[in-house]
Amino acid sequence: MGCTNCSTSGLPKGCKSNGSCGTGSCDKLTVFDWLGNMQQPNNKSFEYIEVRFKNGRKEFFKNEKDVSVYLNDVIAVEASPGHDIGRVSLTGELVRLQMKQKSINLAKAEVKKIYRKANQRDIDIWHKAREKETETMIRSRVLAGNLALKMKISDVEYQGDGNKAIFYYTADERVDFRELIRVLAGEFKVRVEMRQIGARQEAGRVGGIGSCGRELCCSTWLTDFRSVNTAAARYQQLALNPQKLAGQCGKLKCCLNYELDTYVEALKEFPDTNLVLKTKKGEAVYQKMDIFKGFVWYAYRENYSDWIMIPVEKANEILAKNKKGELPDGLEEYVISVEKEPSFESVIEQESITRFDTKNKGKNKKKRNTNAKKRRRNPNKPQNDAKKS
Question: pLDDT tens, 25-47?
C-alpha cells in the first residue's frame, strides 16, 4: 500500500495511519498555517486557496462558489482540458502572503477555479491513474530510446481525470520530440504534455539520500533553488573537490549556502590574506587560518617550513603597528600556549590480535612431536608410563 498523500511507494516508515493519514506529517513541502485563526473584518475568508499535487507541485485556485474546504481536503479543480484532483495545502490569509511573495497580481492573473469537493468516483479514477505512472514512465523511456532522442524521462504525472499526462524530462541540448508525442499519445491514449526540468528539479522529484545520511533537502522542504558557486566553498575553507561538493544532481550542493553568511561574518575579523606581517626578524606570509578557534598561521619568507600560529587579534595588532611604521621584534612574542587536547586511544589497538591464542601452544606442539618420535622407536612399549596403575 502506498501513501495517498505523498508520492512514495510502499508504506512510509513511521507512518501510524497505514499510509492514509490526514495530518500531512509525511507530505513533502508541508506548511504550518500560523494565520489559520485570523479572520477578515467582514468575516469573509480569502477566496484563493493553495492546492498540492504530486511531488510538492503547488498551484493557486479561486474559490468562486465559496466551497467549504479545509486542510488536506481532496478537491476537483479546473485543468486544461478536463479537471484535476489535488489536496488543499493552505487556506486563509497565508495564501495571500504566498501569492504576494510569488508576485502574482490578482487583478491581471488568470487563476483557475475550484469545481467541487472530490466524490468517491473522482478519487477512484485518480488512484487508478496514479497507479499507471511508474509503468508509463518505464515504457516511455523505451520509446524515447527507440527514436534515439538524447533525453531522459524522469517522471510522469497523470491528471486527476486520467485524460492527460505530463512527462518530465531532462536534456543537455534541444530535443525535437514531436514524433515522440505522437507515439506516446497513440501508446497510452492520453493527451501528452512534455515539460523540461533541470537536474536539481529532477533530484527533487525522484528523491534520495544525501551524503549526510538524510533525505534530500530539495525533496523534503526546500522550495527554491538558489545559485551556488565555488566561492561558497572557498569562504568555508573547503577543498575544491567536485566529487565531494556535488550532490546527486551533479551540481554544487545547496547546503553550501546554509552557513555561508555565518562564515562571511566571521571572516570580517580576519586580516586580508594578501597582507604581509613586517617584523624586525623578517616578513611573514599568510599560510592558513582556523575560523572556529580564531588562529592564523604565518611563516617567514626565509623559512616557509616553520609555521607560527598566532591569534587573529595579534595579527590585526601587528598590521596596525605596521601602518604606523612600527616593527615588532618577531612573531614568537605573540605566540600563546594552547592546551594540548587529550588523545583517546582505541582499546582494540592496545591489545594484540593474538591475545586469545593459547600461550603454551608451542610447548604442546613440541611435546606431541617428542612423543611421536618415542612411539616410532619403541612401538611395543606402552605409552604414558606415569599414568599406569
Answer: 455 656 677 776 666 666 677 88
Please state, in angstroms and rounded to a whole number, the distance separating the CA atoms of residues 323 and 112. 67
What is the average pLDDT value for the chain, to the nearest integer? 82
Q: Which three cell numbers stand for residue 265?
A: 561574518
- List CB contacts of 233: < 8 A, sequence separation 6 or more: 239, 240, 245, 252, 256
C-beta separation of 275 from 299 below 8 A: no
**Exposed (0-12), middle (13-18) or buried (19+): which is 91, by Cβ within 10 Å?**
buried
> In the numeric block, which cell numbers belong to residue 266?
566571521
Alpha helices in 277-339 (DSSP H): 312-323
For residue 123, which amino acid is it? I
Q: What is the dihedral of CA 58, 60, 66, 71, to 10 degrees?
A: 30
Strand order in the sheet with 283-290: 277-278, 283-290, 295-300, 303-311
| DSSP letter string, 231-286 | HHHHHTT----HHHHB-TTSSBPGGGGTSHHHHHHHHTTSPPTT--EE-SS-EEEE
Q: Which residues contact 307 (CB under 8 A, 6 or more apart)?
A: 287, 288, 297, 298, 299
Q: Which CATH architecture has domain 129-197?
A: 2-Layer Sandwich (3.30)
Angstrom distances, CA of residue 193 to CA of 44, 125, 168, 175: 38, 20, 9, 14
Rounded to two decimals, what is the model's pTM? 0.68
Please give the grid coordinates belonging to residue 331.
612573531
For the chain, which residues make up each domain, given as ranges? 48-118, 129-197, 204-266, 269-371
Q: How far apart are CA 160 and CA 54, in angstroms?
A: 10
Ranges of the chain with pLDDT below 50: 1-2, 4-25, 385-389
Placement of cell 512510509 in the chain: 12
Contact 89, 52 (CB under 8 A): yes
> Distance (Å, rounded) from C-alpha 184 to C-alpha 151?
15
DSSP secondary structure, 147-197, as one string: TT---EEEEEEE-TTSSEEEEEEE-SS----HHHHHHHHHHH-SEEEEEE-
User: What φ, ψ does residue 321 adopt, rounded to 5°?
Assistant: -70, -40
Q: Which three cell numbers, joined as nine digits, stand for 192?
A: 501528452
